[in-house]
Structures are given as C-alpha cells and as structure tokens.
Amino acid sequence: MTRPLPIVCESPRRFPRQRAGGMRRVASLGATLVVALNVVACHAPSGAPPTAAPSELVDSERRVDHLARELQARGSNEPVTLAAIGRSVHGKPLLLHEFPGAGPHVVLLATIHGDEFAGTPLLERLVAELRAHRELARGRRVSVLPVVNPDGLQARRRENARGVDLNRNFPSRNAQESVGGTPLSEPESRALHGWLLTSRADLVISIHQPVAVVDWDGPADEIARIMSEASGLPAQRIGSRPGSLGSFLGVDNGVPVITLELPGGAQRLSPDVLWERYGATLLRAIESAESQRSSFS
Ligand SMILES: [Zn+2]
Prior knowledge:
With 297 residues, the protein is α/β, with parallel strands linked by helices. Helices cover 37% and strands 16% of the residues. The protein binds zinc ion. Zinc ion is lined by residues 113, 116, 208.
C-alpha cells in the first residue's frame, strides 16, 4: 500500500550524543513510522487559504489524509509528498510536507508547544506558496512539519497529552529529568528525533511564541541576523533550555537551529497577515541556508 520515501534511504548522520542502540531505533522508525502515511500531496487547491483555528486544522488534516490516500490509489506521482513521521499519544499523525531538492536541507517546524500555534498557519501558508511557486525553494530541500504537538494544539496547552513538555524531552547534555521527563519518553519527540537523525538537516527553524525575537543555537548567528532583518524581530539569544531541540541539535551537535519566537498576539493574526509579516523571513532563511554536511558526515 505504501512506498518508502527517498528520505529514509539516506545514511544517518552520526550524532555524538546518540545513545547506545539509537541507530537500531532509527532503523525501526524508518521502517514503521516514516512510511506510515507515505502518500502524494497536492491535496489543496493552489492558493486555498490555510486554516487558522486549531479545530479547523484538525478537520483539515482529516481531509488531507483522505484525499492523499485517494491520490495515492490513483498512482499519482507528484514530487511534493505528504507523510507522517510518527503519531502523537492520541494517534494523530505528525504530518511532513516534503519539497525535494539536491541542495541544503531546511527543516521548518511549528507548534511543539501546543499553545503557541501561530507558526502552524504560517507554515501551512509556506507550503501553499512553495507548491504554487516551486522556484522559491529552487536548489533546496525543504521539509515542513506544521504541527509537532497535535494533541497539545487541540487542547491548546503547552505539553503533550501526557503532560510532558516536548521541547524539554530531547537527549541533550543539559537535559533534566525533573523538567522534561526521561529523554525521548514521548512518541512525538521520539518521532522527531528519529526523523532528524536520518534527514541530515542543514538548518532547523522551530517556531514558538511569545518572546518576539530570533533566537538561535549552534552556528546560526548569520542566519539569525538575516531573519532579524527580514522580520524586524531582534536577533537575541535567550539561552539553551534543558532538553530542548536547540540544546540537542544546535549546542551538542552543531546543527544551526533557529528558534523563531513570534509575538504573543500572533495567533490572532490571519494567515494572510502572518505571511505578510513573516513569510519573507522564512524564504530568506531557506535561500540563505548552506550545506553543513562536510562538517558532520
Ligand atoms: Zn515555546
């Protein structure tokens, strides 16, 4: 029923902090999770307005899932794919929109904190724009995960359904079990961690609220400056939190990680206004990403 995505064929990057048995876990994830919804996208008419409210997003996911399966059954072979890298505690798919390309790989994700969901309609709009104007990401591979914490989004709360802060649940050197539970105890963080290990990201942009700054971990100061100029938000380090994605990928493993902190009121903005204010900064980051592979292969 499903075909493997090209992305699972890449050799996993070696992460120094990867714990014993991690690669076996990744191989297992590759086999069981990444292909879970390996289907063809082009699910929404070009230019269709992205959804904004969480309840609408969940409904939209159901429609997308249904239509995508239909397209797959017809044997469509569009280059833009929609897959799930895993599932939440309540079984919701963690959707991935994939724009293939040979150049640097940019990963954009949103709503790892369920009550900071302005990044979701912004990234859905990015997906629509890239689908309509493929030249915007020419020479780049772009992966978009609009909702990393779908259960938290539905409940409008920061943590996942088991009450764990997913952005404190990564196996970084500074992880504290008292803050984020046992590292990788949650299906959402395990799925993202496993997918990141196989996907060889050259730049990761994670969208949060409400600090209104461009924060970074790892060698991302130049990208942070570029994004600051494009967005009007100051480039400012706010510190690497224990067990965060930025601590694990950026500080421990040297992958450039941007934490784009939108203002607190951003979730009241329409997708059009969000795109008007912050679309350019995402496109500038995609355009400016550079391959990091020589340092980490
Ligand atoms: Zn946050």
